Amino acid sequence: MSELFSFPKVSFVGNKSLNAGNGYHYYNADEVVAGKKMSEWLKFSVAYWHTMDQRLTDPFGEGTATRPWDIAGNPDTMAAALAKVDYLFEFLEKTGVEYFAFHDRDLAPEGNTLAETNANLDKVVDKIEQKMRETGKKVLWNTSSLFTNKRFLAGGATTPFAEVFAYAAGQIKHSLDIAKRLGSESYVFWGGREGYDFLINTDTKRELDHIAAFFKLAKAYADEIGYTGQFLIEPKPKEPTQHQYDFDAQTTIAFLKTYGLENTFKLNLEGNHTYLAGHTYEHEVRFAREAGLLGSLDANMGDKLTGWDIDEFPNDIYEATLVMYEFLKNGGLPTGGLNFDSKPRRQSFEFDDLFYAHIAGMDTYAAGLKVAAKLIEDQVIENILKTRYASFDSGIGADFEAGQVTLKDLADYAENKTDEEINATLQSGRQEQIKSTLNNYIFSVLGQ
Ligand code: XUL
Ligand code: CO
């Protein structure tokens, strides 16, 4: 087939030139980091809804980007939907990205009934399946959009309207069939409108009971058809509803445990969502990891000045380093990866910008991986923690951790200590020094 894009195949060029160009400066698929090839650690994924479907609209203006697969300027036809598949696969080939992720509605236009919509979808999935066979590209995860169509104005699984609830279930059933057929490594639930805008007209308990039961039905169906991919929930605190039920990692973990779903689900954590919750990306990844529930990452960023979800491609090496530190501590992500739920800025409207954006994102996380691996090799953070918590390694601290003391034992121990004695055991947190150390690791590892 003749080439659809003029952009050359992206290969590793190293950091000889400081100017970003058409190659990877840090992402070197075959380079071994922490015992594995970068391509094995970093399962990057192209997000269909951005890279293929975004025209860079915003609430104030029409799209600034035109895409060659919008046959006769119309993105909503089956002809465009089928053409788009060829472009996706060429994009994956040229960037060397192995995975992609999609919502059902990203692939094909809707019909008048669910059956008609599913038939449109299946035509595109047929073509995708064929292309996957030819190229070896894989689905990181798929999902259902239970938030774009008007019927979902009050949610899909938490809607007060049973007709809509049944429709949502039908949509998920079909998406799970597709997940099984295409071998999706995970299946994501992002609760687009699973939340509320107005407390007084919302039965929150009933809605949460409904969504938990909905998840159990989905799992039972996956078991029935033999789909073994990992189920994931993607937390987000607000937007589009004012209060999303899956606010952040800890809220979602509490929900999963309340309803006995903690063995069915893990979390898919997105950078920009973490800031909206008032956290950092590394905070969310840490808490999911410690709960044994780190599933996958939607690699993107927000910015310090904007209070909504801007889905910027990652470019912050400091953040990527700390996220990759948690990632390596987790042993990577067996059924997950780094999905670029990201779009170029509105003024980056040219087709080449999609390539530059993915290069930037992949280099950022490749760089983060390298720095994090070196931090772990040198046990930098481990040693900081070891020193800081050393008083729990012997004496009264160790007795407490071993479960050998009562509250009264601790009180007896503390009773006659003076402030001077206690304060003499305090250590500085050394935050400024530690931040300098992190910067030094970034300079040193990436300067090589
Ligand atoms: C929305 C978002 C979604 C999910 C998939 O903020 O992140 O694109 O990743 O539905
Ligand atoms: Co996302």
TrEMBL record:
**Which reaction is the catalytic activity of this chain?**
alpha-D-xylose = alpha-D-xylulofuranose
Membrane-crossing ranges are: none
Ordered alphabetically, the record's keywords are:
Carbohydrate metabolism, Cytoplasm, Isomerase, Magnesium, Metal-binding, Xylose metabolism
Q: Entry cofactor note text?
A: Binds 2 magnesium ions per subunit.
Q: What are the GO BP annotations of this UniProt entry?
A: D-xylose metabolic process
Which residues are involved in binding Mg(2+) 1? 234, 270, 298, 341
What highest taxon heads this organism's lineage? Bacteria
Task: Please name the catalytic residues of this protein.
Answer: 103, 106
Query: What does the similarity note say?
Result: Belongs to the xylose isomerase family.
Question: What name appears for this protein in its UniProt entry?
Answer: Xylose isomerase
The organism named in the record is Leuconostoc citreum (strain KM20)
